[in-house]
Amino acid sequence: MSLLETSGLTKRFAGLTAVDHVDLAVERGETKAIIGPNGAGKSTFINLVTGLLDPTEGSVSFDGDDITGYEPHQVVQTGISKSFQTASIFPSMTVRENVQIAALAAEHGSFQFNFFKHRGSFSGVDEIATRMLDAVDLLGVAETEAASLPYGDKRRLEIAIALAAEPELLFMDEPTAGMSPDETNATVDLVERLQDELGLTIVLVEHDMEIIFSIADSIAVLNRGSIIADGPPEEVQGDVDVQEAYLGGVEL
Amino acid sequence: MAIAETVLEVILNGLQQGAIFALLGIGLTIILGTMDFLNLAHGALYLIGGYAGMFFIRETSLSTGYLHSIGVTTIGLGLGFAAAMVLVPIFGFVVGLLMERYVAEPFYDRPETDQLLVTFGLALIVQELIKGVVGGTTFQPASPSTIFGISVGGPITLPIVGAYPQWRLYLVGIAVVVIGLTYLIIEKTDFGLVVQAGTQDSEMVRMLGIKINRSYSLVFALGAALAAFAGLIGISFQTVSPQIGTEQALIPAFLVLVVGGAGSVVGAIFGGFVLGITVAAMTVLASQWAQIVLYAVAALVLLFRPEGLFGSTGVGE
Amino acid sequence: MSDERADGGVADSAAPSLLTRLSEHEFAVVGASALALLVFPFLLIDVLGLVGELEIPLLQPVAALLFVGGLVVTLAASVLNKVFPRALLERLAVIGAGALAVGSVLGVFVTDFSIGGYSGLPSLVLIYGIIVIGFNLLLGYTGLLSFGHAAFFGTAAYGAGIFSAQVSGSPILMLLFGTVLATLLAWPIGFLSIRRSGVYFAVLTLTFGQMLYFFALGPGAPLTGGDNGYSDVNVGDLFGVADLGTSLPFLESIEYVFVAVLFLGALAVANRVINSPYGLIFEALGENEQRVEFVGLNVFRYKLMAFVISGAFAGLGGALFVMHEAYIHPNTGYYWIQSGDFVIMTVLGGTGSLVAPVFGALTFEYIANVIPGLSLPVIGSVGSLWRLILGAVFVFIVWVFPRGIYGALSDLVGLVRRGAADDDGGEP
């Protein structure tokens, strides 16, 4: 059974069909890339799965459970996390606190009445936070204000936050957008390490073909809301429809 | 026939009240829609328009306040209602330009909360300033007796309703004309197009290179002029005091915004008249509950149809 | 690629300062505040009969110089700084504010400029202090601006008042009743209001407050006394023995002690909440609400909790208020101006920390109670112009010192500390 499965997933906005009957499956442990021209519906698709939008038709299931129509926080609690395209962090809180918030959610669920419990007595939270910061190499600046980090570090913090929720599946929305070649390499290494060390399943939305071909196990191509190809990189590379979708005939 | 009489009277009164609400709502909605600026000082513009109108129309005697204490016992130009109808919007326009330049613009990039706070503070200052200078007493309504030479005081006999003050009909008529003109400006002119486009997506308009700042000033000034004009109409049948800015104008304006939908001029017009007639009706039926019902209606709309009845989808919640 | 926000990124990797560590423990916070509260009445009432009496030579001109000079420098520097941001201007503004503060305090002892407060004023300030501490959990931390908190204040006031008249005059019981009533009300109002955000949230809260206002004035008059207000409040003795009105040598009255103790309790509770996971979550909500949802937290419920908790604080304040005044009217209890006052106090004091808003309550009540009695050169008696002055100060703070008075003062302290470090030749 696939870890994540969408069935006939569709989203219509007053006349525009952004996502059109998408059937997608993501296997446990794999790194799957979703690519497609701008406006193909990639972001909408992710928003549907992560609960930000409700589908017009179709369903989403995770680990066998139907999660269609779940609120975003519920989706996260079932084990899907998302790292944002822009570094969506908490600027005036410390790096450690940034990650602690996510760790809290992982530790005690989506809501508790624990407003009298002292923060210090949540050792589990601290442990997760430290581990995640270590995984992205930010442990050294843990007490710094997040806003003062250079952009590349902010992106890594972003990933750390997404990880601290202890997901089984991680959506990464254009993780290397706007990064220098060095930062890009570092991020790619990070992603590979995450897969190995934490056994994560990763779904990657990316435009950088080199990255995709170096780390993706399978690629799904979206065009105008529909999947036009879905398979291992070699297969997709040679697919005629895919080549046409990207400026008609350009070799990937 | 008493019921029909009451109903018609309510509708007539409601139209006048509704016209005021509509004018206020339009101003607020174009400012919010175009510049995403939350103007809690909108009621202050109504207040300024009302007092300016009162002083343009007639000589008013003062009994408290700073001016009184330095010996000024009457103030006013006694120019009559017609002159006020022209002067008040112009005055409001100018105030709007100044306000946009010195208060609104510095805050466009600041968080929403700051916008609310600074305009709230400004409204407070204006209210207290008027109270201090002119005095906090309540002045009697300034209903016109002639407009452009036409005698409008006194009742006119209408079918079913019977005697009804003439000038109220004239005022409703004038207000409707003004509202209509505003609608035409928004719908038919280039300026209006920019306003509409800005309402949908101001960033896009900016990127298209249209001189948005100049438009911002004009939008704000237009909204202010409308609010001031609404104040003029308001003082014709309601008492005049420093609190009317918030009580009679700001809160209803936001309620109209809520009902009609942010950024929608048509919505503001519709919402204004609906709320105006509701208030008029409730005042007759159960005046104690009139205000409560008004607020309840707005709350219901806000909860169940947050875009308002006409708001564009995708405008921020 | 450089980040447009990078400001040099000087990592402050020092361990949390002693002050920060202390603030995590209620005892320290409460203890320090208790000490402050012992001295507090002196600020407002001429308990020792010293005002206007001190005859230290040169004190008056020095105070005047500091006051006027400080005012001018602060205004000029901060306005200029807005137009041409310069570190020097920033420092000047803060120094000016410091001089202003010192001059004000000194001036207290040599002019009529303050300490004309009436007895009972310190209690009132603390009552508002309780309200704004709670309100700031909602505004400063969670980022929700409510213009309707008078709904809880007024409901608790009426509730406690009616309770005292019809059931029992025990202060403890009436406070409990009022507070619980207000808290229960905060659930539905919060539940409905939080479904929207930003200005629509604010308008919704305002709406509910106004509905209660008109209800109390009109249809609810049989219960509330309508436009006459409710004056049947019957406050009994504390614990059945102590009449609250009894005056005490240094601490003004038993009522003050009672209110002060409750204030300290409220402070402790708020401090606890901030040091719990809630504090972290509230702060995160204020910074980036969407992200909080996407780490798996139920944003709606947490916002609701912030609302209800702040409503409870407002309720306690309202119940204490009616106990203090023995009278409540819809204009004071429910009218939107009262809600607006809470906003003003909180912002004035500063939204950045736990106690900052209390400074705002102090400043507000000072302006409201002491300034009307003053006579200024041209205008004569200030009288009801105090609201104008308040509005001007408020706008000034929002514009120039968004971190409020407390923020300005702590900037000053930081400035002084940095200056001292520089002098030592140590690290800036």
The main β sheet of chain C shows up as: 2 strands, antiparallel
Helix proportion of residues of chain B, in percent?
over 70%
Average pLDDT of chain B, rounded to a whole number, is 80
Gyration radius over CA of chain B: 19 Å
Strand % of chain B is: 5-15%
The H-and-E topology of chain C, N to C, reads as HHHHHHHHHEEHHHHHHHEEHH
H and E order of chain B: HHEHEHHEEEEHHHHH
Q: From the structure provided, what is the oligomeric state, counting identical versus distinct chains?
A: heterotrimer
Largest sheet of chain B: 2 strands, antiparallel
Instruction: Give the low-confidence spans of chain B.
Output: 313-317
CATH class label of the domain at 121-368 in chain C: Mainly Alpha
Q: Helix segment count of chain C?
A: 18
Low-confidence stretches of chain C: 1-16, 423-428
Describe the fold and architecture.
The complex is a heterotrimer of chains A (252), B (317) and C (428). Chain A is globular, with a radius of gyration of 19 Å. Residues 248-252 of chain A have low confidence and may be disordered. Chain A has helices spanning 42-50, 72-78, 95-108, 123-135, 151-164, 181-198, 209-215, 233-237, 240-245; strands at residues 4-13, 16-26, 31-35, 57-62, 65-66, 80-83, 169-173, 201-205, 218-223, 226-231. Chain A has 2 domains: 1-79 and 171-186 and 201-252, Rossmann fold, CATH 3.40.50.300; 83-166, Rossmann fold (3-Layer(aba) Sandwich). Chain A is α/β, with parallel strands linked by helices and 252 residues long. Chain A has 9 helices and 10 strands. Chain B is mainly α and 317 residues long. Chain B has one domain. In chain B, helix 2 (42-57) crosses helix 9 and helix 4 crosses helix 8 (212-237). The longest helix of chain B is centred in the last third of the chain and has 40 residues, at 265-304. Residues 313-317 of chain B have low confidence and may be disordered. Chain C has 428 residues and is an all-alpha fold. Chain C has a domain at 121-368: ABC transporter involved in vitamin B12 uptake, BtuC (Orthogonal Bundle), CATH 1.10.3470. Chain C is built from 18 helices and 4 strands. In chain C, helix 6 packs across helix 13. Residues 1-16 and 423-428 of chain C have low confidence and may be disordered. Classes of the chains: A alpha/beta (252), B mainly alpha (317), C mainly alpha (428). The interface between A and C is large, with 57 and 43 residues.
